[in-house]
From TrEMBL, chain A:
This is DNA-directed DNA polymerase. It is an enzyme of class 2 (transferase). GO terms for molecular function: ATP binding; DNA binding; DNA-directed DNA polymerase activity; metal ion binding. Residues 553-564 have a biased composition (Polar residues). SMART domains: AAA. It catalyses: DNA(n) + a 2'-deoxyribonucleoside 5'-triphosphate = DNA(n+1) + diphosphate. Residues 37-179 form the AAA+ ATPase domain. It comes from Pisciglobus halotolerans.
Automatic annotation (TrEMBL), chain B:
Residues 236-325 form the DNA polymerase III delta subunit C-terminal domain. Coiled coil: none annotated. The lineage of its organism: Bacteria, Bacillati, Bacillota, Bacilli, Lactobacillales. It is an enzyme of class 2 (transferase). This is DNA polymerase III subunit delta'.
C-alpha cells in the first residue's frame, strides 16, 4: 500500500468529526433522527470545508440500520461498503466530467429503479456547477419529484453558477470557512493519533495558511511532516507555507512608516530571494495591517487578532502608525493582490506596491482635518504661509549678506575668471552638507517635477535645467546647468520664496534653497570632503568607541527614520552615497580615450556609451 | 541529469530523497516556479524512482530499462500532457482519465505529468478534481506551473505545493560569463530566463540583438516624449516582433528598462540592473522624474501585458502604450493643489 495523504486517511466518517460546521451537522442529524429528510440537498462552500464528506456521511446515515443519535455506525455492511465506494445504491458522480445532457438522462432513467441493497438510492453529484445548461434543465423535473427512496445531494464550490430553479428545489446548506481554532483542534487530534510530535505554534502557521480549508491544512501538514524527521517544527511550517516571521513583517512595516523606499525594496528582494511566496506575503501583510488596526482601536481584545503576537514592537508600531495610513495600506495591498492573480510578474507588482506604500503619506500628508475645523485650519494655514514668507524674506536678506562676507574666506572655492561668474555661497553650502541626509534628498527629488509644475511659467523656465543635489532639513542645494540661470535664480527673491512655500505644501517643511552651478558643484563637494574629512572621521570614531554597535547601526541605516535624520551622524559614508551621479561622471572623465575624443571633437558631439 | 537537478535545486533534491527513503510520496504534487528551475527534471526523476526495477534506497538507478525509458519519454505508464495550442482542453484530461482507468501496462504504478497546468481550461481543471482527490489505484500526479495563482483553489488544496526557487542571479550571471557571454548580455539574459541553455541560445540569436536595440530606441523616443515613438511601432517594432511570444518579449524588455530606472532612482547597486550598459542614460532620464511617474509607467506596461494575454491586437496595444507613457511623463502630477 503506498502512502496515503493525511486528508484521505482522515476523511471524517461521522458528523461529529466534521470540523467547524456544527450548525449544519446538527441540522442534518436532527432531520435523520426525526425522519424528516428532504429528497434533494445542495451543499455549497469553499474548498475543504466538508461538503463531500458530509454528503457521504449522510448517505451512510440514511442507509445505516444501526443509526444512533443521527450518526452512522460505520461497522455494518452497508456503512463499510459505502466508505469503500462499493455500494451500488450510492452513486457518486463527477459532474465536471459528466456534464452533458446525455449523462443526466442516464441518471434520470436509472433513478426509476428501486434501490437494490440499501433503503435509499443516493446520488452525490459533485462539482455540480460544471453541468451544462441543458443538463441542469434536464435534471429539474427529476429533482422536484424524484421517485420514492431516491435522494440527490449536489455539492459545489460555486453556487452562483447554479440556476435558481435548481436551488429553489433543494435544501441549501452553506458550509463556512473553518475557524482557526477548529482547524488547530482537528490537526492536534490527528497528530496525536499518528503519534507525531509537534510545536503548538507551528500549527498556528499551518492553519493560517490553509485559509479555512481543512484539506489545505492537512496537505500542508503532510508536507511539513515529510520535510523534517517526523516532527512539525515552526521552521518547517514557515518554509512549507512560505510565510514570514513577525519580525520581517515589522521590519517591512517600519520601512513603510518611515517612507524608506530603499529599505522597503531591499527587504522585498531579500524576502523573494528566500523563495517566499509573493501571494502569501501580500496576504500576510493584509492580515497584519488588520491586526494593527484592531489592536489600535481595541487593545483589550487581543484574542480577535488573527496573526500577530502582541509584544513590545507590535505595541509600539500600533501606536506610531495612524489609522488612515493603515486604511490606505490595506487598500493598496488589496489592489495588488487582485492584480497579482492574473499575471506572471508578481514581483514587479510588489515592487510597485512597495514604492506606493512607502510614498503614501508623503503625498497624503498628515491626517485630514475634520469638516468643522476646516475653516479654522484654512485661516491658520494662510497665516502660516504669510509668516513663512516673512521669515523667508528675512533669511534671504541674511543669506545675501553672508554671501558677500562669506565669499572672501572661501578662496578655495572655484572662481571662474570670467566676469560676473556665479559665486556660490560656500559657507551656507557647507552648513547644509554638514547635516545633509540621503532621505531628504530622495524626498526632494521625488517632488521636484511637481514643484516645477507649480511655479509660474517664467519661474519654471529658470528652474528647468536644475536638479537638487544635496539636502538637509534646513537647506537644499540645487545645481544649475547654466551659470546665468543660476545667478538669476539666486537673485530672484520671489522665486526663492515661492519655492520655499511650495515645498512646504509638498513635503511639510521648507528648506532654504542655495544655488550652485553644475560645474562648481563637484569641486565644492570634494573640497568639503577634504576639509572636513578628519572632523567627520574623528566624530564617527569617537561615537563608535563609545557605543560601537549603535554607531555602526546608525552609520549603515542612518537614514532609516525621519526623526533621526536631522542628526548629522550620517557622516562620511552617507555623504559619499549622496551624489552617485557625479562620481560616475568623474570616473568617466578619467578614461584617456574619452578625454582625447572630447578634445578632438568637443563635448557636444562626443557621446560616451559604456558597454 | 542528476547533476542538473543537483545544481538547480539541491535543497529540494535532498528533501525528496528523504521522502522517497521513507516511502512517503504523496499522490499529487504541484510544482510551482519560474521557467528553467528544474520542475520537469524533478518530476521525471521521481517518476523514474517509482518505476525503477533496481531501486537504491528508493531512488532511481538511471540505468535500468524503466529509468532509461522514463527519461526518454517512452515509458507507457508515464503520461505527459502539455497544452495543445494555447490551453489544455477537456478532451485531453478525459483521455488521460480514460487511460488511468485501465491498469498499468507494466506495473500497477501510473504517473501523469501535466505541464503548464495553469493553462487548463475551466472544464479541464474541474474534470480533474475528483480524479486528483481520490484516484483509483496507485497513481501519482505531478502538476507543473509557472503561475499557481491562476489555478483553481480546489486544485491547489488537493496537491502538495512545492516551490521551486530560481537560482540566485549573480550565480547565473557568473555561469553565463564562464560560457563567454559578455557581462552586459548576461545581466539582461538572467532577467529574461532562468534556463542557462536558453539564455545561451538567446545570446547567439542575432534577431534578439536587433530586438534589444529596437526597444532601447523606442524607450529613448518615449522618454523624449517624441511622437516618433508612436510611428516607430508601425515602422520598426512590428518588423521584428512578429508573433505572440515576441510581443511579450518586447514588453518584458521595456518593463525591465523602466524597472531599472526605478531601481536607480532608489540608489540600488548597478550590478542588479538588467541593462547596466545604459546606466548613464537612465540616470539622466530619472533626474527629472518622480517615483510616482516611474511606477505609473510600470503599471501601464503591466496593463498592456494583460491586454496581450487576452488577445488584443498587438499593434493597438503597443501604440496605445506609447501614447499613454508619453502622457504619463508629461502631464502635471500635482494633485495636491
Amino acid at each position: 500500500m503506498s502512502y496515503q495523504a493525511l486528508y484521505r486517511v482522515w476523511r471524517p466518517q461521522r458528523f461529529d468529526e466534521i470540523a467547524g460546521q456544527q450548525a449544519i451537522t446538527q441540522t442534518l442529524k436532527n432531520a435523520l433522527i426525526q425522519g424528516k429528510t428532504s429528497h434533494a440537498y445542495l451543499f455549497t462552500g469553499p474548498r475543504g470545508t466538508g461538503k463531500t464528506s458530509a454528503a457521504k456521511i449522510f448517505a451512510k446515515a440514511i442507509n445505516c440500520p444501526n443509526l444512533k443519535d443521527g450518526e452512522p455506525c460505520n461497522t455494518c455492511e452497508t456503512c463499510r461498503a459505502i466508505t469503500k465506494g462499493q455500494l451500488n445504491d450510492v452513486i457518486e458522480i463527477d459532474a465536471a466530467s459528466n456534464n452533458g445532457v446525455e449523462e443526466i438522462r442516464d441518471i434520470r432513467d436509472k433513478a426509476k429503479y428501486a434501490p437494490t441493497v440499501a433503503d435509499y438510492k443516493v446520488y452525490i453529484i459533485d462539482e455540480v456547477h460544471m453541468l451544462s445548461t441543458g443538463a441542469f434543465n434536464a435534471l429539474l423535473k427529476t429533482l422536484e419529484e424524484p421517485p420514492q427512496n431516491v435522494i440527490f445531494i449536489l455539492a459545489t464550490t460555486e453556487p452562483h453558477k447554479i440556476p435558481l430553479t435548481i436551488i429553489s428545489r433543494t435544501q441549501r446548506f452553506d458550509f463556512k470557512r473553518i475557524s482557526l481554532q477548529a482547524i488547530i483542534a482537528r490537526m492536534t487530534y490527528i497528530l496525536e493519533q499518528e503519534e507525531i510530535r509537534f510545536e503548538p505554534e507551528s500549527l498556528q502557521i499551518v492553519a493560517r495558511a490553509a485559509e479555512g480549508g481543512m484539506r489545505d491544512a492537512l496537505s500542508i501538514l503532510d508536507q511539513a511532516i515529510s520535510y523534517g524527521e517526523d516532527t512539525v517544527t515552526v521552521e518547517n511550517a514557515l518554509s512549507v507555507t512560505g510565510s514570514l516571521t513577525q519580525e520581517k513583517l515589522i521590519d517591512y512595516f517600519s520601512a513603510i512608516l518611515h517612507h524608506d523606499t530603499e529599505k522597503g525594496l531591499s527587504l522585498l528582494q531579500e524576502i523573494l530571494a528566500e523563495g517566499k511566496d509573493a501571494a502569501r506575503f501580500v496576504e500576510d501583510m493584509i492580515l497584519f495591517s488588520r491586526d494593527l488596526l484592531v489592536y489600535q482601536q481595541a487593545p483589550a481584545k487581543s484574542e480577535i487578532l488573527e496573526t500577530a503576537r502582541v509584544d513590545e514592537t507590535f505595541t509600539a508600531m500600533s501606536q506610531e502608525i495612524s489609522n488612515t495610513a493603515l486604511y490606505e495600506t490595506i487598500k493598496i495591498l488589496n489592489e495588488t493582490q487582485r492584480e497579482m492573480k492574473l499575471t506572471n510578474h508578481a514581483d514587479v507588482y510588489l515592487e510597485v506596491a512597495t514604492v506606493k506604500l512607502t510614498q503614501m503619506q508623503a503625498n497624503t500628508a498628515s491626517p485630514l482635518p475634520t469638516e468643522e475645523k476646516a475653516a479654522d485650519s484654512q485661516k491658520v494655514q494662510q497665516l502660516e504661509s504669510e509668516l513663512q514668507a516673512l521669515k523667508q524674506q528675512l533669511q534671504t536678506l541674511s543669506v545675501q549678506q553672508s554671501q558677500t562676507t562669506a565669499a572672501r574666506p572661501a578662496k578655495r572655492a572655484p572662481k571662474k575668471a570670467a566676469n560676473g561668474a556665479f559665486k556660490p555661497n560656500v559657507s551656507a553650502i557647507y552648513k547644509v552638507l554638514g547635516v545633509a541626509t540621503k532621505q531628504n534628498l530622495l524626498q526632494l527629488r521625488d517632488v521636484w517635477p511637481d514643484l516645477l509644475d507649480m511655479l509660474s511659467v517664467t519661474q519654471r523656465a529658470v528652474m528647468k535645467a536644475s536638479t537638487p543635489v544635496a539636502a538637509s532639513p534646513e537647506g537644499l542645494i540645487v545645481s544649475f546647468d547654466y551659470d546665468i540661470l543660476c545667478q538669476k535664480a539666486a537673485s530672484d527673491e520671489n522665486l526663492v520664496q515661492a519655492i520655499g512655500s511650495y515645498l512646504n505644501r509638498l513635503i511639510g517643511y521648507a528648506p532654504q534653497m542655495i544655488t550652485v552651478t553644475a560645474e562648481q558643484w563637484p569641486m565644492i563637494r570634494s573640497d568639503y570632503l577634504k576639509h572636513h574629512k578628519e572632523e567627520i572621521q574623528s566624530r564617527t570614531k569617537a561615537e563608535s568607541t563609545d557605543h560601537p554597535k549603535e554607531a555602526q547601526k546608525t552609520a549603515s541605516s542612518s537614514n532609516a527614520s525621519q526623526l533621526e535624520s536631522a542628526e548629522p551622524d550620517a557622516g562620511w559614508e552617507s555623504l559619499n552615497q549622496l551624489i552617485p551621479v557625479d562620481e560616475a561622471g568623474e570616473e568617466q572623465k578619467e578614461d584617456p580615450i574619452v578625454t582625447e575624443a572630447v578634445q578632438l571633437f568637443g563635448k557636444e558631439i562626443v557621446e560616451v556609451q559604456n558597454d | 541529469m542528476n547533476e542538473k537537478i543537483e545544481r538547480l535545486q539541491p535543497r529540494l533534491l535532498k528533501q525528496f530523497q528523504h521522502i522517497l527513503e521513507q516511502h512517503k510520496l504523496a499522490h499529487a504534487y504541484l510544482f510551482e516556479g519560474a521557467r528553467g528551475t528544474g520542475k520537469k527534471e524533478i518530476a521525471l526523476w521521481l517518476a523514474a524512482s517509482l518505476l525503477c526495477v533496481n531501486k537504491q534506497d528508493g531512488k532511481a538507478c538511471r540505468k535500468c530499462v524503466n529509468c532509461v525509458r522514463v527519461f526518454e519519454h517512452q515509458h507507457p505508464d508515464v503520461m505527459e500532457v502539455a497544452p495543445d495550442g494555447l490551453s489544455i482542453k477537456v478532451e485531453q484530461v478525459r483521455d488521460l482519465k480514460a487511460e488511468f482507468v485501465k491498469s498499468g501496462v507494466e506495473s500497477d504504478q501510473k504517473i501523469f505529468i501535466i505541464e503548464d497546468a495553469e493553462k487548463m481550461t475551466a472544464g479541464a481543471a474541474n474534470s480533474l478534481l475528483k480524479f486528483l482527490e481520490e484516484p483509483d489505484g496507485k497513481v501519482t500526479a505531478f502538476l507543473l506551473t509557472t503561475a499557481k495563482q491562476r489555478l483553481l483553489p480546489t486544485i491547489l488544496s488537493r496537491c502538495q505545493l512545492v516551490h521551486f526557487s530560481p537560482l540566485p542571479k549573480p550565480i547565473l550571471i557568473q555561469e553565463l560569463e564562464d560560457k563567454g557571454i559578455s557581462q552586459n548580455q548576461a545581466a539582461l539574459l538572467v532577467h529574461l530566463t532562468n534556463d542557462i541553455e536558453k539564455a545561451a541560445a538567446l545570446s547567439e540569436d542575432e534577431t534578439f540583438a536587433i530586438q534589444r536595440e529596437l526597444i532601447w530606441k523606442w524607450f529613448k523616443w518615449l522618454t523624449k516624449q517624441d511622437d516618433e515613438a508612436f510611428i516607430f511601432v508601425q515602422t520598426d517594432l512590428l518588423q521584428y516582433f512578429k508573433e505572440r511570444e515576441q510581443y511579450k518579449l518586447a514588453l518584458s524588455l521595456l518593463l525591465l528598462l523602466y524597472r531599472d530606472a526605478l531601481k536607480l532612482f532608489y540608489g540600488q547597486q548597478a550590478d542588479e540592473l538588467a541593462f547596466p550598459r545604459y546606466e548613464q542614460e537612465l540616470r539622466q532620464f530619472i533626474a527629472q522624474k518622480s517615483s510616482k511617474q516611474l511606477t505609473e509607467a510600470i503599471e501601464e506596461i503591466l496593463l498592456s501585458q494583460k491586454k496581450l494575454e487576452s488577445n488584443v491586437n498587438a499593434q493597438g496595444v503597443f501604440e496605445q502604450l506609447a501614447i499613454r507613457l508619453m502622457q504619463k511623463l508629461s502631464k502635471p502630477l500635482s494633485s495636491l493643489t
